[in-house]
Amino acid sequence: MSPDREECSGPYAKTQMMKNFYEETKTIRAYDVDFNNRLKINSILNFLQDVASVHADSLQLGYSHLLKHDLAWVLSWVKLEIDHYPSFGDSIIIKTWPKCKHKLYSMRDFIIRTEDDRMLVKATSAWLPINIKTKRITDTKNLPQEINYQPDDIALNEFPEKIIPSDKKETLLIKKFRYTDIDVNKHVNNTRYIEMILDSYSTEHYKNNLIKSIAASFISESFYDDEVEIRRSVKDGIDIIEGINIKISKKVFAAQIKWFS
């Protein structure tokens, strides 16, 4: 799915003389990898959110800058495509940049590569600015700084779209949220949802299967003591995962997973 060209080339998407990129080198620690000595998907998402946060701070669009205006960023959707999994002790370079405005979303892309320039991961993400008092989405025009988008630099040329499951579903996991699941915004961090999805599969499954791509939409908030049921369906060979808040029967997140063939 591609956005209107107009949406990615409007006044908030002009490429300026100074390119707006950020790079950071990280060393993969033992707690970042799984029992196969491969970087975990939830570790990748943590890395991406870390560098996005640092970059936003440098642009005066980070947590503390937006808080002064009763605003905050919310990650609404993310997609990762993995070419190769690095291992414990490897050094990786993560590069990020704001790509364009798409509808109300501010799109941010990422690439992860090795020091000798081997591509590991490509990712794109959709962020929404919200008013923390009203809990309503606002336009990026209301941010304290203009965003210098780079619409000609694309990691993944994809944009948020609804994830629709098939009718036949099975329950894989039920989880009640506790202290370690809650973040600074007093709700469940979206990385925890990714961890839940990953934990829905058995160890035996991971011995023989490897995730090629994952896309996830974060739809509603969860809080301490909420209980979420993980449901799985298969559509056109793709796993569709849903997280349902049991208490209020509301969808919290949805994801689709493709495995290496």
Describe this structure in words.
The protein has 261 residues and is α+β, with helices and mostly antiparallel strands. It is 15% helix and 37% strand. It folds into 2 domains: 121 residues, Hotdog Thioesterase (Thiol Ester Dehydrase, Chain A), CATH 3.10.129.10; 90 residues, Hotdog Thioesterase (Thiol Ester Dehydrase, Chain A, Roll), CATH 3.10.129.10.
What is this structure, in a nutshell?
With 261 residues, the protein is of the alpha+beta class.
Task: Give the topology, please.
Blueprint (H helix, E strand, L loop, with lengths): L21 E6 L13 H18 L4 H5 L3 E12 L8 E12 L2 E10 L4 E13 L4 E2 L32 E7 L13 H10 L3 H6 L2 E8 L8 E9 L2 E8 L4 E10 L2
Antiparallel strand pairs: 1-3, 2-5, 2-8, 3-4, 4-5, 5-6, 7-9, 8-11, 9-10, 10-11
Helix pairs in contact: 1-3
